[in-house]
Write a structure and sequence with these properties.
By secondary structure, the protein is an alpha/beta fold. It has 15 helices and eleven strands. Strand 3, helix 6 and strand 4 form a beta-alpha-beta unit. The structure holds ligand V47.
Length: about 375
């Protein structure tokens, strides 16, 4: 008997959709043109079913979360990304620069807690150098020796490593000695140079982002990948971006998860564009899940998407909803996200997952399951 997905009306009436559906059922790799076709033509019901199929092969019924907090050492930044609501000029009442002592005090709040990860990311401070980034990591680990430090986007890394006149490999090795454990996915935006020239003209290129992540993977440092969508890019740009990430993963196997980040429009120069709707968010999660056949996890970042929307995204290929956060990040609240003080208890995270009819599982930062909440 034919799988039920093949009986969906859209599949019955569109031979290209039928072929793509058949490929996904058989576990065959999609071409970029297939992904573009899914973006253009597939309805939400089909995308949801295909994304669920792919996700279930990778992750069964588990939906993962972790216990984490962020440190955002500064929002001063040498770059001027037009989508950013976070960057402020020195002297602006909304700007901040943390001292190492302030960073130490934040870490001290988590002594004797069950937190397993700190995510450290911020603006690119004009004066900081590689050793200062190292000292930030060292300060946190002096208080929380067992914590996993996921720190510094490829943009921060590119800037400080080039400033130190080291190669990426040497710079990353130095940070690893200071205690860097993995690299978050920020700064990828959309790799296409023309789009990048319009939305973040002065920062590191897509090529540089990929080169840093390649160097990290080769140095044994795993990382995440992101895509900023829902602004001036089109589906072809998204598929080019996903293809570059899929190709690098074929080469290194160093990406733990992929995180689509929805452009949020408040308080930034691109705000006039508005935001895409929820259907587009779910369609995008699904196509990413279906196309990225070599990245095991797909994350919906709840401070960006909102809590209820994150719960719904579980039906579109998402198996990871990030963590407890503890009201320690401002990137999305400053860009207009619903959660102005993002924090979730483990009880709330597990309830959200159970109510989506999935099995909650706490993970560590490298995606080992620590505890299943049956
Ligand atoms: O690179 C900035 C995005 C990213 C806006 O690796 C915006 O686990 C939407 O990468 N609207 C930084 N997006 C955050 C990031 C991230 C977040 C959560 C988890 C992980 C991980 C990584 O945030 C930036 C940019 O793409 N961003 N401003 C905005 N107005």
């Amino acid at each position: 008997m034919e799988p039920l997905i093949l009986n969906l009306p859209s599949v019955q009436t569109d031979s290209m959709l039928k072929q793509i559906t058949q490929k996904v059922i058989e576990g065959l790799r999609l071409l970029p043109a297939d992904a573009e076709y899914l973006y253009e033509k597939a309805d939400l019901a089909l995308l949801g079913q295909l994304a669920n199929l792919v996700n279930h092969r990778f992750n069964g019924n588990y939906v993962l979360f972790n216990r984490n907090f962020h440190i955002e050492p500064t929002n001063l930044c040498v770059f001027n990304c037009r989508f950013c609501s976070y960057h402020k000029a020195a002297g602006d009442p909304e700007s901040w620069v943390m001292t190492l002592d302030e960073i130490k005090k934040i870490a001290e709040k988590y002594v004797n807690s069950n937190v397993t990860e700190v995510h450290i990311v911020g603006g690119v401070h004009p004066k900081w150098d590689l050793d200062y980034y190292g000292k930030i990591i060292q300060t946190v680990k002096s208080i929380l020796p067992a914590i996993h430090v996921k720190a510094f986007s490829a943009i921060e890394l590119d800037f400080v490593i080039r400033k130190s006149k080291l190669s990426y490999a040497e710079g990353l090795a130095r940070l690893k000695e200071y205690g860097l454990d993995s690299v978050p996915g920020g700064g990828a935006e959309i790799f296409n140079p023309e789009i990048r020239a319009k939305i973040c003209p002065d920062k590191a290129s897509g090529e540089a982002w990929l080169t840093i992540h390649r160097a990290a993977h080769k140095a044994g440092i795993q990382s995440n990948a992101t895509m900023l969508y829902g602004h001036i890019e089109n589906y072809r740009h998204r598929v080019e971006h996903l293809s570059a990430i899929r190709a690098l993963q074929d080469e290194t196997h160093g990406f733990n998860c992929f995180i689509p980040l929805k452009f949020r429009a408040a308080n930034n120069p691109m705000g006039y564009l508005g935001e895409v709707n929820l259907v587009e968010d779910f369609r995008n999660f699904a196509v990413c899940r279906i196309f990225l056949d070599n990245i095991k996890h797909l994350k919906a970042y709840w401070p960006m998407l909102g809590i209820q929307n994150t719960q719904l995204a579980i039906n579109f290929g998402v198996d990871d909803i990030d963590g407890t956060i503890d009201d320690t990040t401002k990137i999305y609240s400053m860009a207009g996200a619903e959660e102005q003080k993002p924090t979730m208890t483990v009880g709330r995270l597990t309830e959200l997952i159970r109510n989506a009819n999935r099995v909650p599982a706490e993970r560590d930062s490298l995606y080992n399951i620590i505890k299943v909440y049956e």
